[in-house]
Amino acid sequence: MLYPQKLTSKKSDTLIRIFIGISVVIAIVLVIINKITTPDLHWAALVNAGMIYAWVTVIYAIHKHTNIAAHVMLQTIGVSCLTVYIDYKLGFQGWSFDISIPIMVIIANITMLVLTIISHKKFLRYAIYQLIICAFSLGTLFWVYEGIVHQKTLSYIASSISLINFIVTLCLCAKDVKEEIIRKFHL
To answer: Fewest 10 Å CB contacts: which of 49, 130, 166, 182?
Structure first.
């Protein structure tokens, strides 16, 4: 039986460069088509932003020592930035702050809770990322008080879920955290 050849690191890097090159050509062609057909509507910028986001995600995911919690955090921040950009390019209706970011925060918190329940022994690896997601979700409350957010319900729900998730995680992992502190500081 013949098995397919394993891709070496050098071959995979070459393939990635080729595909990125193709993506750059596609991006340039899209900008040209956009300028010729609909110069008033900048849809090529939206497509190219999505393509850049996809490549950042792919390159990040290829790294072998990626912490899944870091990946969740970066995806949350990346998709949130992408939706704000799309909202801005479409005339800024505010849906990115009202709907998109709170939903991303809710999904990130549910994902972090599932990760904590499934592998609570690795909580310390996830803790800093969970804190960042919690701080990011508190940013939604800041946007409410600054008047950026008009539909406040999702922002309140996202912040509440984030706070509850953090408390539940601490309760589930308090013993592990205590043991780790004792071990690290020789108490």
So the answer is: 182
Measured in degrees and rounded to the nearest 5, phi and psi for residue 127 equal -60, -45
By C-alpha distance, which of 155, 157, 154, 134 is closest to 146? 155
In this prediction the pTM is: 0.71
Do 59 and 100 belong together in one domain? no
Burial of 109 (0-12, 13-18, 19+ CB in 10 A): buried
For residues 124 and 182, membership in a common domain is answered with yes
How many distinct structural domains can be found in the chain?
A: 2
Q: Which residues, other chains included, contact 129 with Cβ-Cβ below 8 Å and sequence gap of 6+?
A: 67, 69, 70, 72, 73, 112
pLDDT tens, residue by residue, 116-143? 777 766 667 777 788 888 888 888 888 8
110 lies in a domain?
yes
